[in-house]
Amino acid sequence: MTTAKICGLSTPDTLAAAVRGGASHVGFVFFPPSPRHLGFDQAAALAGQMSQAAARVGVFVDPDDTLLDQAIAAGRLDALQLHKTGPERTAAIRARTGLETWAAVAIKTRADLDAVRAFAGAADRILYDAKTPPGAALPGGMGVRFDWGLLDGYRHPLPWALSGGLDPTNVAEAIRRTHAPIVDVSSGVESAPGVKDVDKIAAFLQATRP
Ligand SMILES: O=C(O)c1ccccc1N[C@@H]1O[C@H](COP(=O)(O)O)[C@@H](O)[C@H]1O
């Protein structure tokens, strides 16, 4: 069965919608340039409203230890999603924090998959994400999709998840095509950048079910 991560949540009602709708994971972004960035107080308040129904994943871009420590404590994080973070640093973060660690790998062409194997032994999960355009402010969260056919026949070296441009209208096809164990969405369940929509969250989660 495919489960879902709803990422970039920042309000109590949208977090509640994700948990109520059956999300296995919820994502909190700690990256100031993002419209979904959370302050530590905000993250603590959101974490405080949750039961253990969904795992809390912190999303980071090449974070330092101070940021990680503060975010882990505030958001009571269960897992870390690392963008633009190499295998060595990923392994060090995983060893130091003891938390489940996801390595986001940006994909546009088949050659981009070459970066994945280096994370074996360094990360717990690979997040195949679409490459955002050169010079983009964000390495994710921009609704960019990659060619899922690139994963056809690919032997995944680690547990994995799929993201990049997913939304309520295409996620069923993405699951059928890739057999992703986890699908991850951010902008596809928003009405504007950083503004999550409870109806779109519900529709996305409904569409992940067989
Ligand atoms: O969402 C963000 O603002 C963000 C910022 C920095 C790194 C990653 C970010 N989001 C992640 O990007 C993917 C795909 O997002 P989308 O569904 O295409 O909008 C997702 O994993 C988010 O967690």
From TrEMBL:
Pathway per the UniProt entry: Amino-acid biosynthesis; L-tryptophan biosynthesis; L-tryptophan from chorismate: step 3/5
Catalytic activity: N-(5-phospho-beta-D-ribosyl)anthranilate = 1-(2-carboxyphenylamino)-1-deoxy-D-ribulose 5-phosphate
Start and end residues of each N-(5'phosphoribosyl) anthranilate isomerase (PRAI) domain: 4-207
GO biological process, one term: L-tryptophan biosynthetic process
Keywords: Amino-acid biosynthesis, Aromatic amino acid biosynthesis, Isomerase, Tryptophan biosynthesis
Pfam name, any one: PRAI
GO molecular function, one term: phosphoribosylanthranilate isomerase activity
EC numbers: 5.3.1.24
Record InterPro entries: Aldolase_TIM, PRAI_dom, RibuloseP-bd_barrel, TrpF_fam
Enzyme class label: isomerase
Superkingdom, taxonomy of origin: Bacteria
NCBIfam families documented for this protein: PRK01222.1-1 (NF002295)
Family: Belongs to the TrpF family.
This protein's name: N-(5'-phosphoribosyl)anthranilate isomerase
Organism field: Sphingomonas jinjuensis
UniProt lineage: Bacteria, Pseudomonadati, Pseudomonadota, Alphaproteobacteria, Sphingomonadales
Gene transcribed to yield this protein: trpF
